[in-house]
Amino acid sequence: MTADSAAPRTLAYVACAGDNVVGTFEFDRAEGTLRRAGEPAPAPKVRALAAAPDGTRLYAALSFTPGRTAAYDVGPDGSLSPAGEGEVPAPQCYVSIDATGRHVFGASYHGHQITRSTLDADGHLPRPQQHDGPQKPDPQQQVLEPGLRAHAVLPSPDNAFVYATALGSDRIAVYALDEAAGTLSPVSATDSAPGSGPRHLRFSADGDRLYVLHEMSGEVAVYGRDSRSGALAELQRISTVPASLGLVHGRMREPGVPDPGPDAIWCADLRLSRDGRYLYTSERSSSTISILAVDGQDGTLRLLGTVPTEQQPRGIAVDPSGRYLLAAGEISGAVTVHRIGDDGGLTAVSRTEVGAGPLWIEFLQLARS
Questions:
Q1: For residue 223, which of 238, 208, 243, 245 has the smallest C-alpha distance?
Q2: What 3 state SS string does 20-40 have?
Q3: Among the four 17, 179, 228, 261, which has the fewest Cβ within 10 Å?
Q4: Could you tell me the domains of the chain?
Q5: Is residue 17 within 8 Å of residue 45, measured between CB atoms?
């Protein structure tokens, strides 16, 4: 058996909102290419994806009212089988999972809330209560309000705290997580600059640093995190949008209002390289990815430059090998694979049409049969 044949298979799952599906693609790590693998799984109004820690299940945030979280079992060949849906009060734009794989978190931009949903003994998500009269408190689910336009919710690497962004309130809310019960308790909040719009967030591998991308200002804020209290202390705020792009400060989108416009900052996603040396952010108006170097001592950032990518890059992801960054173009309907150089630079090596409106890319590695 060769090393290549023994290596795990790498699957990329792509949430295509325009087609209402999650597509499955085999990722060739040697060539940096995607190949469709099997039929897509139905996912009406899908917005985001998250894989369970053990890799046996995938979750999708669905933008219905009431909101829904869909579960899919991952087969030995990587295929997705619907495994039920859970209901939450408001449409979902984000989903994440804690380290135990028992607690699923969601964020609702339109509902201004986050949710905690705990799987039951059979692995099922909460379903609506089926009885008349006032609704009783449901230990399987919890709803909290971090502020206006909640956009992301993510547990810390130590699974002790959960962090949520409220884009409309320019706030990052911190909650203590009771791992056994799954309950969240508010402990603190950190305010960003007015009108900056904190959107997505990522932790360093050790959890000491939190990086928050701001949709409308184009800045990344770097926070030091106290592991005992969960509190955040801002260390740096740096723009990821160079003046050469000719963009102006963005604005918050409201229901029924068109996109910010071709000259407005409209940042979307951020990812760290696997070795933690570089951070990447996507900007939709200019269809670019910014590359930032991470200081190995204090975690602060230095902007290295930008590269063009797919039209309106909504979601980006680094493959498990750490050698490639993938960018999904919401308008183009394609994914470009960029090779990551030793200096953090990005070189486009392949492009694959994946379907209408791709918003999110989630990787899983499976043992070869």
A1: 208
A2: CEEEEEEEECCCCEEEECCCC
A3: 228
A4: 3-129+137-366 (2.130.10.10)
A5: yes
Phi, psi of 143, deg, nearest 5: -125, 130
C-alpha distances (whole Å) from 163 to each of 150, 186, 192, 294 are 11, 10, 14, 21
pLDDT at site 1:
43
Nearest of 212, 227, 217 to residue 301 by alpha carbon: 212
Q: What is the structure's pLDDT at 71?
A: 97
Residue type, 363: F
> Is residue 137 predicted with pLDDT exceeding 90?
no
Residue with tokens 């380290």: 99
- The whole-chain average pLDDT of the chain stands at 95
First to last CA, the chain: 13
Output the six-digit token pair for 119.
Answer: 């799987």
| Number of other CB atoms surrounding residue 36 within 10 Å | 15
Question: Which residues, at least 6 apart from 168, have a Cβ–Cβ distance to it below 8 Å?
Answer: 112, 147, 148, 149, 197, 252
The CA distance from 48 to 68, in Å, is: 12
Tokens at 346, concatenated: 């990005």
Q: What's the mean pLDDT in 292-304?
A: 98
pTM more than 0.85 = yes
Q: ω into residue 139 within 30 of 0, thus cis?
A: no
pLDDT at site 133? 53
Q: Once rounded to an integer, what is the mean pLDDT over residues 77-103?
A: 96
Task: Supply the pLDDT for residue 261.
Answer: 84
Token code pair at residue 111: 């509902």
